[in-house]
Specification:
InterPro entries: Aminoacid_DH-like_N_sf (IPR046346), NAD(P)-bd_dom_sf (IPR036291), THF_DH/CycHdrlase (IPR000672), THF_DH/CycHdrlase_cat_dom (IPR020630), THF_DH/CycHdrlase_CS (IPR020867), THF_DH/CycHdrlase_NAD-bd_dom (IPR020631). Its EC number is 1.5.1.5, 3.5.4.9. With about 290 residues, this protein is α/β, with parallel strands linked by helices. The protein has 10 helices and 10 strands. The strands form 3 sheets. The chain has a 5-stranded parallel beta sheet. The longest helix has 22 residues, at about 265-285. The chain is globular. The structure holds 5,10-Methenyltetrahydrofolate. 5,10-Methenyltetrahydrofolate (GUE) binds near residues 102, 261, 262 and 269.
Length: about 290
Amino acid sequence: MSDIDTSKIIDGKAVAAKVEAEASAAAQKLKDNGIIPKLVTVLVGDNPASQMYVRMKHKACERVGIAAEDCLPPADISEAELLDLIHGLNEDDSVSSILVQLPLPAHINAQTIMNAISPMKDPDGFHPFNMGNLMINEEGLVPCTPKGIIRLMEEYNVEIKGKNAVVVGHSNIVGKPMAAMLLNRDATVSICHVFTKDLKLYTKEADILVVGTGVKHLIKADMVKDGAAIFDAGITTDATGTYGDVDFENVIQKASLITPVPGGVGPMTIAILMTHVVKCAEMIAQK
Ligand SMILES: Nc1nc(=O)c2c([nH]1)NC[C@@H]1CN(c3ccc(C(=O)N[C@@H](CCC(=O)O)C(=O)O)cc3)C=[N+]21
């Protein structure tokens, strides 16, 4: 195995700590004025991975000084009952933010649920109102993972304007909003996905490469341009360990900058979420 130049590795944990400190300061200002930002998480059923992610979000709230509450409906809750629960949280003035953990059980339409969350209380930025604003370059509450990646680009002085940016994965929570954010900053953006015929043809041209597919080690060294900045939003955990969508050890040899998994994009997602909970509380205070 060849040596790894650690100066190329983006420290997502360090930037996340900085973002959390900013959120904490903003939360303190609100609290000085008698407003307590509060996140309510809704976790349907008992998926262990979801339980872990929700626990990580609650721990972040604790670090930042945000109140957090857990709603734990059973896996067989009906869509109508879940909608009722959300309507109650929308009406509750003590609740700043509502996060319904994904994935939801198959008998519930996830988008129907996302649409029911008040767009003012949507720290995930998944409501069509917030998604629509992103599309017209009015970035308010936007999806946390791509926003966290943009913040990493800013912190590491990755120029976006005029660059070839390639996004692999076209999900509503990573790929699509990522592409919109890069386009808003004047990159030339390509979006590749599972039906793309020749993935390498695109990735080879990428000055900025963002990958979010959930396919372990999809991106190999021969698919990457020399000097590319690479952001890996994928995470797969199996019996042998935790992996990203990028074959890190080999791809780092060609990259100028690269996020590790874990410790890259993941912590940023949660840190940005914290800033959004505070933003929601600020919006409610101004209403
Ligand atoms: N409504 C909703 N909002 C979400 O934001 C949301 C969701 N549903 N469903 C699931 C995905 C997944 N997600 C992650 C956040 C942080 C890490 C993270 O911080 N990971 C650590 C590693 C954790 C480990 O070791 O497995 C890291 O990358 O360093 C991972 C995954 C948020 N999600």
